[in-house]
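Need tokens for this chain, all 312 residues.
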Amino acid sequence: MMKFDSVSAIIPSYNGAEFIGDAIRSVLAQTRPPEEIIVVDDGSEEAAEGVLEKFQDKLIFLRQDHQGAAAARNRAISRATGEWLAFLDQDDEWFPQKLEKQLAAVAGRGEIGLAYSDMEIFGEETAPSRLRGLNTPSGWVFKDLLFANFITPSAAIARRQAVIDVGGFDEQLEVVHDRDLCLRLAARWQMLFVPGIFARYRKHQGNLSHKRLQAQINLYEILRHRAKLYAPEEYCAALPRLKPMLGELSFEVGRLYLAGGEAAAARKWFAKSLRYRGRRLRSAAYFGVSLLPRPARETLRQVKRIAVRKAV
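Here are the structure tokens for all 312 residues:
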């Protein structure tokens, strides 16, 4: 039988041979090691077995067809036996006292469903704190999570039964499924901020911006439609403040579609943005631009770039 404070470390992997060895070593270096380490290969196109061979007696290795990180995490959760789940992305790392400090903070706190901390950013961009300037609330944080993403899976631990009870990660969401899960958890459980920087988030070309459009679309779906089902009263109370954010999100989706040459899709999202008070004039202007022939749009873009350079 596992201990009450037992931990299952979960690492989803997809084409992660370059960094996953460092991630696993950071788990093995914990001053309070997890009871098990579960690595799920999500149908990688590049083999990582060579990297994992040296750790094969220290981890549980699962493989599946490519279904996305949410499905990989759910697969690991179904196999996990720990009281707590500690997620780690394949390109991130933990500092040695991460699990020790977080487990100590939640000891005897049966009301806590998730504990989170700060993390530094390293790699192609660097910053000593990901959460600098952000609120780091504890307790009932549902409304706070609507407005800011202050929880990163690699810097958190979550109660396994709580994650199971709310349905795990939504595999229909290609990205930002962690934000969706945290909102569902926050609707039922209290959360705890544990002061300290206990993890490292690696910035590199593989995660900088290639899914930015899909992330914005998914976030709009979560904040506009899903979140109101998770905690209706709190959502309604927060909606007046949330509307400007929804307007900005829908405008940004439209702008990204327009930049990619998809004018019809862009108009759909600019029209959404016009429903919200705020920068309606800007949304209307971009909607008008989306009606122009593509050569005219390209000319306007060049003119804008030249004007920006001159202003600088």
